[in-house]
Amino acid sequence: MDQLSSYLPGILLAYSAFLLGIISPGPNILAVMGTSLSAGRKEGIALATGVAVGSLTWATLTVLGLSAVLATYASALTAIKIAGGFYLLWLAYKSFKAARADSVIAADEPQGERISRSGYILRGYLIQMTNPKAALSWIAIVALGMQQGAPLWVGAVIIAGTFVLSLLIHVTYAILFSSPAAIRTYAKARRTIQMALGCFFAFAGAKLIFSRT
Asked: pLDDT averaged over consecutive 10-residue blocks of the chain (213 residues)?
């Protein structure tokens, strides 16, 4: 129980960073929106499932990779946290910049012939796995939750929790954004959401950079 209470704040912070990160539309969210609008709700849910499995893959690779590095080079955690912290600060800057922009959400389904639902799952997986920013994002998220000498179960909890969150959030997007009215509603709240994201990423980035453990 003492172990759980020791690592729980970091785990919850990692969950929060991941959850807020997927609120802001990126390639995966826009693909889910566009697919639900143009191909249908079930197809959007299939794509969302593929994205969630991609998140699971990235989380597993990152946790195992960081665990292997830390087992050999304990001091590497400091460098990883600093790198992750600066990445989160960059995300904060991007969020504040997006809040000031006049652009609106554009949700477009990837072009091509209509495909099967299993094809949409694969497409969602590939969208997530080929995102060039995914590795840096996951390093920052995992670094928030893993302290020096953290047991492997902490990484497992982060992996399981982020997968559940990814599946729930992306499927929710697929269901909600199967109607154009939902996107218009989201667009109205865009500035507030981006400002809130910027504040959180700035806080989490500073916490990583100045953390001693």
From this structure: 75 88 73 80 92 91 75 64 77 79 56 72 86 76 77 88 92 83 72 78 79 59
Residue 167: the pLDDT is 93
User: In the chain, where are the structural domains located?
Assistant: 2-210
> CA–CA separation, 204 vs 95, rounded Å?
14
Helix (H, G, I), strand (E, B) or coil at 213: coil
Cα 5 → chain centroid: 24
What is the amino acid identity at position 99? A
What are residue 109's phi and psi, to 5 degrees?
-75, 140
By three-state DSSP, how is residue 210 classified? helix
Cα-based distances in Å from 79 to 50, 112, 139, 167, 174:
32, 43, 11, 31, 38
State the pTM of this model. 0.72
User: Is 14:62 a contact under the CB 8 Å cutoff?
Assistant: no
Tell which residue, 211, 208, 209, 201, has the closest CA to residue 19.
201
Is the Cβ–Cβ distance between 45 and 174 less than 8 Å? yes
Cα 39 versus chain centre, distance: 24
Question: DSSP letter at 107?
Answer: -
C-alpha span between 61 and 194 (Å, rounded)? 29
